[in-house]
């Protein structure tokens, strides 16, 4: 059962009986998840939604809250339907700019600071130990600043973090701690799929340059270059890492960049817990697939009582356990 609550000032209204369809989605790299609801355009609906005064929506499935956020757009058509679109509080990270200067601060510190700066309420935040020597972002969004901090931590430690919104609170979480036990499989809950393999963005070597543009190091995938030729990328030397750390980092980067991109798209029966940033076990016998994938993009759709989801999945090279 779907429930939709409209909050106006200090009052709340249950407008579940007006729902015609719901689309709830998010993707990797996006600060906020969105909810678009098509409502029957009655007097009750049209008088209930006012995007100019910051009305908000809370969406439940079977009594479990999936989304709450600020209504930021509405559209009415000649078919007497009204569609409203809301975004969770991650939108405050992407829609606020400032100049940020951090010295010897962790991702945890940066997360707490930017959220406090723009009045965003937070839940728990993962403890991070690596101190970023310097992070300066001029006229940048809070979201880009956080992504930069997360990227620098990953380069130094190999740990991956992501940000999510739940019940009006933002959380910072370590990615590998969020491998679900859900199984998606043909003959079961998968209704269609497609698999794309590509080397369009591949690199066979990385050249690292100093601040003076002199060559510090070149890492090559020799065997791959024999097959497809040279595809080179340039990176800048990070003076805050030791030579040993830099060499290990370059090798890891090349390993990732010289691996063909594999994107699996799946349409399946809806599971509300399966959203961007989590991992699922996928079994497709025809393709010989039986492994964990990350969800990079998800779109959940409800038409009446029918819940389906379309996922874009990224091959996870770190975790293969079911």
Notable traits:
single chain; 322 residues; alpha+beta; Phage tail proteins - horseshoe like beta roll fold; Phage tail protein beta-alpha-beta fold; 3-stranded mixed β-sheet; 6 helices; 50% strand
Could you walk me through the main structural features you see in this protein, from its secondary elements to its overall organization?
This protein is of the alpha+beta class. The chain has 4 domains: 2-88, Baseplate protein-like domain - beta roll fold (Phage tail proteins - horseshoe like beta roll fold); 92-175, Phage tail protein beta-alpha-beta fold, CATH 3.55.50.10; 178-198 and 261-315, Phage tail proteins - horseshoe like beta roll fold, CATH 2.30.300; 205-257, no CATH class. The chain has 6 helices and 21 strands. The protein has helices at residues 43-48, 91-94, 107-117, 142-157, 222-228, 243-257, and strands at residues 2-8, 11-14, 19-27, 34-40, 56-61, 64-76, 81-87, 97-105, 122-125, 132-141, 161-166, 169-174, 179-185, 190-198, 205-209, 215-220, 232-236, 261-269, 279-284, 289-303, 306-315. The strands form 4 sheets. Strands 1, 2, 3, 4, 5, 6, 7, 13, 14, 18, 19, 20 and 21 form a 13-stranded mixed beta sheet that branches. A hairpin with a 5-residue loop joins strand 15 (205-209) and strand 16 (215-220). Helix 3 runs antiparallel to helix 4 (142-157). The longest helix has 16 residues, at 142-157. The radius of gyration is 23 Å and the shape is globular.
């Amino acid at each position: 059962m779907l429930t939709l609550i409209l909050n106006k000032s200090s009052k709340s209204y249950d407008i579940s009986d007006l729902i015609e369809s719901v689309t709830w989605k998010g993707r990797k790299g996006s600060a906020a998840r969105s909810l678009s609801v098509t409502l029957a355009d009655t007097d009750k609906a049209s008088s209930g939604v006012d995007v100019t005064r910051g009305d908000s929506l809370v969406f439940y499935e079977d009594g479990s809250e999936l989304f709450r956020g600020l209504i930021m757009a509405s559209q009415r058509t000649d078919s007497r339907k009204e569609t409203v679109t809301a975004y969770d509080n991650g939108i405050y990270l992407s829609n606020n700019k400032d100049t940020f200067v951090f010295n010897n601060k962790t991702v945890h510190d940066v997360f707490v600071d930017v959220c406090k700066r723009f009045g965003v309420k937070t839940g728990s935040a993962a403890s991070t130990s690596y101190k970023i020597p310097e992070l300066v972002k001029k006229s940048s969004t809070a979201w880009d600043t956080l992504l930069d901090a997360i990227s620098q931590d990953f380069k130094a430690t190999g740990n991956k973090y992501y940000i999510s919104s739940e019940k009006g609170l933002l959380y910072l979480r370590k990615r590998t701690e969020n491998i679900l036990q859900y199984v998606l499989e043909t003959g079961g809950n998968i209704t269609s799929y497609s698999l794309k393999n590509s080397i369009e963005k591949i690199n066979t070597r990385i050249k690292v340059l100093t601040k003076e543009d002199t060559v510090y190091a070149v890492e090559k995938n020799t065997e791959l270059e024999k097959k497809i030729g040279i595809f080179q990328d340039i990176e800048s030397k990070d003076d805050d890492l030791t030579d040993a750390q830099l060499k290990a980092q370059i090798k890891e980067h090349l390993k990732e960049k010289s691996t063909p991109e594999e994107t699996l798209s799946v349409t399946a029966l809806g599971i509300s817990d399966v959203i961007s940033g989590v991992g699922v076990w996928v079994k497709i016998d025809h393709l010989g697939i039986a492994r964990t994938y990350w969800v990079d993009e998800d779109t959940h759709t409800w038409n009446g009582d029918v819940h389906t989801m379309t996922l874009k999945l990224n091959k996870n090279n770190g975790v293969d356990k079911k």
